[in-house]
Amino acid sequence: MLSQQDISDRILIQEHFAKEHLPLDMTIEQVEEHRQKIKQLLKEKDACLVAHYYTDPVLQQLADETGGCVSDSLEMARFGNAHEASTLVVAGVKFMGETAKILTPEKKVVMPTIEATCSLDIGCPIDEFSAFCDAHPDHEVVVYANTSAAVKARADWVVTSSIALQVVEHLADQGKKVIWAPDKHLGTYVQRQTGIEMLMWDGACIVHEEFKAKGILDLKKVYPEAAVLVHPESPDAVVELADAVGSTTQIINAARDLPNEQFIVATDKAIFYKMQQAAPGKQFIEAPTGGSGATCRSCAHCPWMAMNGLESVLHALETGKDEIFVDEELIVDARKPLQRMLDFSASLKG
Ligand code: SF4
After folding, report:
1. Which terminus of the chain has fewer CB atoms gathered within 10 Å of its CB, N or C?
2. Cβ(146) to ligand 1 under 6 A?
3. How many CA atoms lie within 13 A of 305 on its CB side?
4. Which atom of ligand 1 is nearest to the CA of 304?
């Protein structure tokens, strides 16, 4: 049976698709007017725009132009933490705003819309997850960044897709067993690479789960020279076809570094903006979603990421509405596994 939360998330997705097919209701002049107002307000409010690769390119460009950051969730967290601005405007989904708040509670963190969430976060409610962890006390608890503050607070480690393999390898070397949550596809990939004993939560990303191996094989017939780039939240059969598997930053780097001129890309298509900058002149092709005759729920673009736009960023700056608040005790507990990830990441570089 669907919960109230599931139902309202479905409604949000449906509303998003209904809107997406309407003509863009802003003229070029209005777009420019919004951009200038946002730039002005960022200065006046001592604020910094931090945007995810999956947000609208117009926001990615604004973040770049204003000294903010466009990146994956690990780098967004690091950047927001180190930046001197007193306000962070986090264009992404709710767990990213919460992560920013947990790492820098003294800063004001606002989001273009607090309703932008994530199927992985929704699919891992704290009560059920906590009971699962309690039932397996001999396991180290490793959770993906795409989780609520409460789930992070229950974890020993938080990881992003850019560092998951190294963290779990580190735990495997110590002979540990792990509970992994919530993305089962990323978990399967990490388990296979590391050989660790893993208990897996049954969550999935509604965008990456749509990619289909058969569709990619068909596309390879049309573009035989194309390399396949895959985010490991995709199903196993899709990961197996990849020339490069990795986090958003890692597959952007692969697009730059591989000699191929064409790429079939299995992740959110908003990433093409940064891929084109990193590898100018190369061609990027969306990996197919949905089987033949099937309806597609996401069509390679996250409905929640798509809730971030110029109007909502401007509104967030003007009103301060949709500020992120996290309970103080949760901040203390959730910060430990997050900081462990950041320290571990720094140790790999050092
Ligand atoms: S793309 Fe998937 S993992 Fe990322 S926010 Fe959207 S639903 Fe969550």
Report:
1. N
2. yes
3. 28
4. 6
Give nearest CA residue, ligand 1 atom 3: 205
Determine the distance separating the centroid of ligand 1 and the alpha carbon of 29, expressed in angstroms. 32
Amino acid identity for residue 80 in this structure? G
Mutate to test the pocket of ligand 1, among 124, 148, 304, 308 (most ligand atoms within 8 A of CB): 304
**What is the chain's length?**
350
Ligand 1 touching residue 307 (CB < 6 A): no
CATH 3.40.50.10800 fits 208-286, yes or no: yes
Whether 208-286 and 4-117+304-327 are alike in CATH topology: the answer is: yes
Q: Which residues of the chain have pLDDT under 70?
A: 1-24, 291-298, 350
Query: Is 153 touching ligand 1 by the criterion CB < 6 Å?
Result: no
Cis peptide before 182 (omega within 30 of 0): yes
Check: CB of residue 111 under 8 Å from CB of residue 52: no
294-309 pLDDT, tens digit each? 555 557 889 999 999 9
Amino acid 235 reads P
CA angle 225, 231, 235 (to 5 degrees): 95
Is domain 120-204 given the CATH code 3.40.50.620 in the classification?
no
Tell me, using a 6 A CB cutoff, whether residue 120 lines ligand 1. Answer: yes
Q: What is the pLDDT of residue 349?
A: 77
Ligand 1 closest atom vs CA 206: 7
Map tokens 């798509």 to a residue. Answer: 306
Domain ranges within the chain, ordered by starting residue: 4-117+304-327, 120-204, 208-286
Nearest CA to ligand 1 atom 2: 205
Q: What does the CA dihedral 74, 86, 307, 275 come to, rounded to 10 degrees?
A: -40
Superfamily of segment(s) 4-117+304-327: NadA-like (3.40.50.10800)
pLDDT digits (tens, 9 = 90+) for 122-171: 999 999 999 999 999 999 999 999 999 999 999 999 999 989 999 999 99
* Ligand 1 atom, smallest distance to 121 CA: 8
